[in-house]
Write a structure and sequence with these properties.
Strand order of the largest sheet of chain A: 2-1-5-3-4
InterPro entries (chain B): COI1_F-box, F-box_dom, Leu-rich_rpt, Leu-rich_rpt_Cys-con_subtyp, LRR_dom_sf, Transp_inhibit
Keywords (chain B): Auxin signaling pathway
Number of strands of chain B: 23
Largest interface: A-B, 41 and 56 residues
Shape of chain B: globular
Family (chain A): Belongs to the Aux/IAA family.
Structural class of chain B: alpha/beta
CATH superfamily of one domain in chain A: Phosphatidylinositol 3-kinase Catalytic Subunit, Chain A, domain 1
Largest sheet of chain B: 21 strands, mixed
InterPro entries (chain A): AUX/IAA_dom, AUX_IAA, PB1-like
Radius of gyration of chain B: 25 Å
Largest sheet of chain A: 5 strands, mixed
Radius of gyration of chain A: 24 Å
Strand content of chain A: 5-15%
Protein name (chain B): F-box domain-containing protein
Structural class of chain A: alpha+beta
Order of helices and strands of chain A: HHHHHHEEHEEHE
Oligomer: heterodimer
Distance between the termini of chain B: 46 Å
């Protein structure tokens, strides 16, 4: 009996029509989607699956960033066993206190690589409020190294000797400064201070998916 | 025992300290009840709505120390609407009015207003200890009142509270003559602290043994404080970011080396991992280490630190330690008794540990008795192995991030795995389950989990039978909390008398209907059956067949509570 539950859920979720029905925003009270399941031939019990709860709580998934849109269309055909973009939030899941969640949230450590340096550093992006603050912190962090290893007077002056770049969520290497600070913090996965000579093939300074305004 | 004078009995009872034991004493006979009640100083109230403060005072006139719990456990996960209740003010007001000689107050999941703290600080001349865990509703102004007025204060311990921070002046409210501090924990405060005031406070507190700092306390202040307090037993580091090549760092290393009494270490809320070696000298003495708020400590730095901690009994960490890191723990910490592995990225839904880490720990740490483990996946085979390796579990809480995930290898439900746990661990008192689970697992729980007191269920089971097995079998059950599981009226109403032998039952997003709850409430007048409406709307559903979104019932001698908000309906 039990293995059927798992596969049944997969079946009902991937069956073309039912997929859309279940992700449709309804104002139905808890239990409605179970009726749909029963209609679908499910006599296995009225357990509300985790997935159903996810669907009921998703709100309007399309209102957000384009990331989600892309993921959803890709997942249409694949088993929709995973919530869209794995970002769906069920109330109270995972069972972690807000206090702890907030404490984790305000720690966004990313690796910083500097061309020529033998080791990387890590910075907590949440500790800064602007690009200026971040860049000056990076200058401090790497100035010691520079002075120790480069006997000449060359300092890390960003924008002249080195180009600060970052890898975003999509894996692209971008120049710092194009998007609002908060959006940058959200999407930055790692930083690299690139030698200017190498910095020629970077993504052009055109606004990408979410243009202008505050993050 | 009739021929012993009361004083002798009282003296004997003094040696019995736990609430449970004293409760047992009081039930032996009337005179024991009388003597015990009149001499009990430390009282524990597991549900602040189960009894009125007046009644507590009446029964325990010698009351000096009280612990109160407010909101149900699932409030931690936002399942309980915000204004539900759990106010401490009426208790403090009643104690003040009745001139209780209150010295210690310990609160968990309660709403504590600044007014309550103010009243507390002014009403009890001998007040010594305030411990607030997961509370809310107060600001640093309330703390200022405590600091200023509680001249005998020894302990101020704030654990994971939501405090509105009005900046650091509250610390200055401790008088210059206040030298009695033993324990100070303000790690959860978000705002700035007057560092000079802090240093002076520490300098004039020779008895200080426990100090947990917040993020606003920087490296050099830590160094100065440690120089002043080499006798610390418990240290919570705030901010730990510095240049390891500096003089301050060297001074810190010296200071730490002198702190030979430190047994418990936590914090590192901001951390430069390359500065961690400064702590290696005290690691061998540590019995408790909490790095669960230090995501900045990862990989090699983390395992290096742990390798020095051979005496560890309690470890709280983030899952970024990975299965490999847990293997290091397993081979290093042979005395480990309690392990908690938290998700470092709860929003993404991906954990960095699997069943392998758990198995490694279980085979390396035979003394393990408590575990909380957030993981990516689990298997029956792993759970069966863990059950065999560690038959001494008292608390076993497993949280797979995808809560209905089956056995990662066989795709079967995890019934057999958890069944092995309850079968092997005869002393199990607390259990939380996740994964694909059918009624079968509850059959096992009902059959084997004889000592079980608290059970947490989410997205599990197939039918009423599941819940019935549990209610039938677990004779010692006190707290049952269930969410998103298909248990309905059949299970709810099977044995209504059982709920008077329990503290509470929580059911949300299950199959119970309004009619079922009404029936229960009618049969059991000494239960409060509270229904909470989704979205906190005020218009209730009047159709008995309608499913209830959230139900919380608890036994009580205090009747329906008068402070319930609109969205709570007590049947």
């Amino acid at each position: 009996m039990s293995p059927e539950i798992g596969t049944h859920q997969l079946e009902s979720d991937t069956a073309g029509d039912m997929n859309f029905k279940e992700t449709e925003l309804t104002l139905a009270l808890p239990g409605e989607s179970r009726t749909l399941k029963e209609m679908n031939g499910g006599t296995i019990g009225t357990k509300r699956g985790f997935l159903e709860t996810v669907d009921l709580n998703l709100g309007s998934p399309r209102a957000d960033c384009s990331d989600k849109d892309r993921n959803e269309s890709e997942n249409d055909v694949l088993t929709a066993a995973k919530p869209p973009a794995a970002k769906a939030q069920v109330v109270g899941w995972p069972p972690v206190r807000d206090y702890r969640k907030n404490a984790m949230k305000s720690c966004k450590y990313v690796k910083v690589a500097v061309d020529g340096a033998p080791y990387l550093r890590k910075v907590n992006l949440e500790m800064y409020n602007s690009y200026e603050q971040l860049l000056s912190a990076l200058e401090d962090m790497f100035s010691c190294f520079t002075i120790r290893n480069y006997l000449n007077e060359r300092k890390m002056v960003n924008g002249v000797e080195n180009v600060p770049t970052y890898e975003d969520k999509d894996g692209d290497w971008m120049m710092l400064g194009d998007v609002p600070w908060k959006m940058f913090v959200e999407s930055c996965k790692r930083l690299r201070l690139m030698k200017s000579s190498e910095a020629n093939g970077l993504a052009p300074r055109t606004p990408s998916k979410c243009s202008s305004t505050s993050g | 025992m009739n021929y012993f004078p009361d004083e002798v009995l009282e003296h004997v009872f003094d040696f019995v300290t736990s609430s449970r034991d004293r409760n047992a004493l009081s039930q032996v006979c009337k005179s024991w009840y009388r003597i015990e009640s009149s001499s009990r100083q430390k009282v524990f109230i597991g549900n602040c709505y189960a009894i009125s403060p007046e009644r507590v005072i009446e029964r325990f006139p010698a009351l000096k120390s009280i612990a109160l719990k407010g909101k149900p456990h699932f409030a931690d996960f936002n399942l309980v609407p915000h204004e539900w209740g759990g106010f401490v003010y009426p208790w403090i007001e009643a104690f003040a009015r009745n001139r209780v000689g209150l010295e210690e107050l310990r609160l968990k999941r309660m709403v504590v207003s600044d007014d309550s703290l103010e009243l507390l600080s002014r009403s009890f001349a001998n007040f010594k200890s305030l411990v607030l865990v997961s509370c809310e509703g107060f600001t640093t102004d309330g703390l200022a009142a405590i600091a200023a007025n509680c001249r005998c204060l020894r302990e101020l311990d704030l654990q994971e509270n939501e405090v509105e921070d009005h900046r650091g002046h509250w610390l200055s409210c401790f008088h210059d003559s206040h030298t009695s501090l033993v324990s100070l924990n303000f790690a959860c405060l978000k705002g700035d602290i007057n560092l000079g005031v802090l240093e002076r406070l520490v300098a004039r507190s020779p008895n200080l043994r426990s100090l947990r700092l917040n993020r606003a306390v920087p490296f050099d202040t830590l160094q100065k404080i440690l120089m002043q307090s080499p006798n610390l037993v418990d240290l919570g580091v705030g901010s730990y970011v510095h240049d390891p090549d500096s003089e301050t760092y060297d001074k810190l290393v010296t200071a730490i080396e002198k702190c030979k009494s430190v047994r418990s270490l936590s914090g590192f809320l901001d951390v430069a991992p390359h500065c961690l070696p400064a702590f290696h000298s005290i690691c061998p003495n540590l019995t408790s280490l909490n790095l669960s708020y230090a995501p900045g400590i990862q990989g090699g730095e983390l395992t290096k630190l742990i390798r020095h901690c051979r005496k560890l009994q309690r470890l709280w960490i983030l899952d970024c330690i990975g299965d490999k890191g847990l293997e290091v723990v397993a081979s290093t910490c042979k005395d480990l008794q309690e392990l908690r592995v938290f998700p470092s990225d709860p929003y993404i839904g991906h954990a960095a540990v699997t069943e392998e880490g758990l198995v490694a720990i279980s085979s390396g740490c035979p003394k393990l008795h408590s575990i909380l483990y957030f993981c990516q996946q689990m298997t029956n085979a792993a759970l069966i192995t863990v059950a065999k390796n560690c038959p001494n579990f008292i608390r076993f809480r497993l949280c797979i991030l995808d809560p209905t995930k089956p056995d990662a290898v066989t795709q079967q439900p995890l019934d057999e795995g958890f069944g092995a746990i309850v079968h092997s661990c005869r002393g199990l008192r607390r259990l939380s389950l996740t994964g694909l689970l059918t009624d079968q697992v509850f059959l096992y729980i009902g059959m084997y989990a004889e000592q079980l007191e608290m059970l947490s269920i989410a997205f599990a089971g197939d039918s009423d039978k599941g819940m019935q097995y549990v209610l039938n079998g677990c004779k010692r059950l006190r707290k049952l909390e269930i969410r998103d599981s298909p248990f309905g009226n059949g299970a709810l109403l099977m044995d209504v008398g059982k709920y008077e032998a329990m503290r509470s039952l929580w059911m949300s997003s299950c199959e119970v209907t309004l009619g079922g709850c009404k029936t229960l409430a009618k049969k059991m007048p000494r239960l409060n059956v509270e229904i909470m409406n989704e979205n906190e709307q005020t218009d209730f559903i009047f159709d008995d067949a309608q499913k209830v979104d959230k139900m919380y019932l608890y036994r009580t001698l205090a009747g329906q509570r008068k402070d319930a908000p609109d969205f709570v309906w007590t049947l």
